[in-house]
Design goal:
Nucleotidyltransferase, domain 5; 30% helix; elongated
């Protein structure tokens, strides 16, 4: 008996349109449900104000936060000067052209800012920017040669 002679099977066709719809819905879901963090920091820093436009060039950069209470934060961790020096040494070994962006509270002692910049220079990092905020509240950075 030949059962296949009477019936021919139609080729299996995979519809892509519903699959594409599901992929787009998943993409939309994850885009909407993702939270965006603008500027994580371990300490609150009240930046000084400046009306100048941002002068930070594109490329790799390292942020150092200086709190009003004297705390120093790099890579999201509160640190002391010895640990900061080690971290700056590691960064300089990886990429000596790294831009160091210093975000210091407006009440930070000028000497502490100079100490941090001197530490970075001793380790071979010579490109600095001092972060400021615009009078309207947006953050910017002024370059320091």
């Amino acid at each position: 008996m030949d059962f296949n002679a009477q019936r021919r099977r139609s080729p299996l066709i995979l519809e892509l349109t519903p699959l594409i719809d599901v992929v787009f819905l998943l993409l939309l879901f994850f885009m909407v449900s993702t939270t965006f963090v603008q500027e994580p920091s371990a300490i609150e820093v009240d930046l000084p104000q400046s009306s100048a436009a941002a002068l930070v060039p594109s490329g790799t950069d390292t942020e150092i936060l200086l709190g009003a209470d004297g705390r120093v934060v790099i890579a999201g961790k509160v640190t002391d000067l010895a640990t900061l020096k080690d971290e700056l040494r590691r960064i300089a070994r990886e990429d000596p052209t790294t831009q160091v962006v210093v975000r210091g509270d407006k009440t930070v002692a000028y000497q502490q800012l100079i100490d941090i910049m001197s530490l970075a220079q001793e380790e071979g990092l010579t490109q600095f920017s001092l972060a400021t905020s615009r009078p309207g509240g947006a953050a910017g950075a002024g370059g320091v040669p």
